[in-house]
Structure formats: structure tokens, C-alpha cells
Amino acid sequence: SQQGEEDPQALSIQEGENATMNCSYKTSINNLQWYRQNSGRGLVHLILIRSNEREKHSGRLRVTLDTSKKSSSLLITASRAADTASYFCATDEKAAGNKLTFGGGTRVLVKP
Amino acid sequence: DGGITQSPKYLFRKEGQNVTLSCEQNLNHDAMYWYRQDPGQGLRLIYYSQIVNDFQKGDIAEGYSVSREKKESFPLTVTSAQKNPTAFYLCASSIAGGSGELFFGEGSRLTVL
In chain B, whose CA is at the least distance from the CA of A105? Predict the structure, then answer.
């Protein structure tokens, strides 16, 4: 079963622009995480936001969480060609025990 | 450097053969996981283990088997019962419990000929 659903599925922007992607989920969570995956590689953890947090920053990344709407957003500011990757949200559902459920991802292309 | 090592990176298998994918970590993590990723898709959980000699089925365990005899190692066997095994397999580990950050290996791509 898929808990998180990312939107859009794909995004193409010019270098220097901001990229925003959203994640919606269905059930109560303990935390939500964002990961990045370069083509053919493993995933790399970007940021974790807990259910009692509303916003978190890490470098050029900004994550928001709205538990009332069961949604999160990831903003990448001043994008670079090296930001080209797929981005996944993952949720730690309260009812699912100690495991993460991943969404289908947003494929981001940053054109130089 | 600490990390997770998956091998082989590429593997080809004939139909009807079992294959075993290796996953080793030197991060001293208690929990380990196997995920399957199909082209353009997210990750689906196959099996996970939170402690040595114990493991649980994930969402798509049918046709797969695992063992956890050592803390550092969590091999995955793709059996001939798995009807559509061609996929990208990712191993991950976490400190404990799975609600924290996952550390991933570089993946193993299995192709059935």
C-alpha cells in the first residue's frame, strides 16, 4: 500500500528557479521524511520533520508539514543542475509499526 | 568510512533460478530493510529486521526470503516463486525502530532473462 503521494510526478525548471513538490498521506504519522535519489543510485536522506513541527530548514531546503491537511511540501530554492534527481517522501505511520512507507516520487529536471 | 554495501550491482538470472543479493553494513545499526523499486515508481518494502535472528514480512514478501544471522548482514534471496523479479533492489539500515533516518546502499539491479 502507498501512503504518500507526491505531486507533481515530474517537474522541469531552469537553474536558479525554485522547485516545489508536495506529498499527501492518508493516516496519522509520527514523522515525515524526504529523500533524494539520483538516477540508478541509492536514496539519500534530506530532512525529517516530526508531527509536532510545522516547518524545517536545511540549507536550500525548506519543508512544511500540515497535519490537518495530511500534507507536506519540499521547496528547493535557487536550484542547480546538480539538484536533478527524484525526490521521495516517506511516512512513519503510527499504526504501521516501525517502518517507513514511500511515495511514488517527483522527478525534477533542472536545466542549465 | 561507514556505510552499506550491496552486491552485486548488476545480476542476470534465468527463469527458475534462485539468486541471493548481499547487504552488509558497518554502521552498527540494529534495523535493516529490503525495498524493491520498479521503473519510475516508489519503494515497496519486502522484509525488515529490527534485531538479529528476527525479521518481519513487508508489503510484498511473497517469493522472497531473508536471514539475519549477524547484525552486519541481511541477505535477500529472490526465489523462483517470485513471478516478476526484474527490478532494482535497495537495502537500508537505521539505528533502531525504523522511524528515524534510513541509510541506503547503492542498489542491485536484477534482470531475469
Answer: B42
